[in-house]
Specification:
Belongs to the Nudix hydrolase family. With 253 residues, the chain is α+β, with helices and mostly antiparallel strands. The protein is built from five helices and 17 strands. The protein is globular and about 55 Å long.
Length: 253
Amino acid sequence: MSVKLTHVVAAVILNERGEFLLSSRPEGKAYAGFWEFAGGKVEAGETELAALQRELHEELGIQIAAATPWLTKTYRYEHAHVYLRFFRVLPQQWQGEIQCREQQQYSWQQAGRFDVEPMLPANGPILRALSLPWLLKGRPESGWRGQNGVGEVWMAFDVAADVVLHTNMHLPTVQTETLHLLPWSVSAQECAGDGWWWRPVALSDIETLCVQLRKRPVDMPMVVLLDEHLMNQASILQDLGVHVAVTMAEDTA
Ligand SMILES: Nc1nc2c([nH]c(=O)n2[C@H]2C[C@H](O)[C@@H](COP(=O)(O)OP(=O)(O)OP(=O)(O)O)O2)c(=O)[nH]1
């Protein structure tokens, strides 16, 4: 029996302080009072970006100029089986004053420290993924460090030994069918059943990765390890849609 999936888009809106926006679901909707990322159902004939722009304007009165596809998630509620597409919206990609047009509430939240509840049940992994810093720097000997809204995240991995240790973060597995389509320069390694690391050789590999991630999105972050010659590309990778970048750094003290 085929299951009808409800196609939903939702926006991870960021502000200049690196916080992200959650809002409560209004009275009259399923899971009223639960917290979510603003968004809603994609209408027939509408693109995902157009749906996101319409929903964010209807719910919060803000305008979205652009949004980067991020993670995806399918989830079966009693009321619907949903296919959720999350988009990252950077501070320069949205404008307007936030208004609660549907009598909902909103809150700016820090990654890793949520003080609103209850959350929509489908969103747990998404909230955990947000606690991953976008960029971590370090070396294999000393581990990699980055900042999220709460503080420092540290992790270490030994690609050869296929072992990952980490603190204050979560690195679950991505879908293998997407991994098989990637332009492997060095094949991806599953690390202790906890995540996937991928080490591209050229910027074009990363562009191909991002095209594949847009076509076949994954439900957890893909961590891209950048060798030294690709480090200066890190600033453009976020726009391309890379989830998490790990770079070698001189100073790891
Ligand atoms: N907007 C949003 N919906 C989410 C999130 N997580 C999650 O599981 N959902 C689910 C809840 C709902 O079943 C579905 C969104 O549908 P909705 O009823 O809110 O959509 P809508 O705003 O278009 O509502 P309506 O016009 O039909 O009243 O997706 C999230 O973070 N944001």
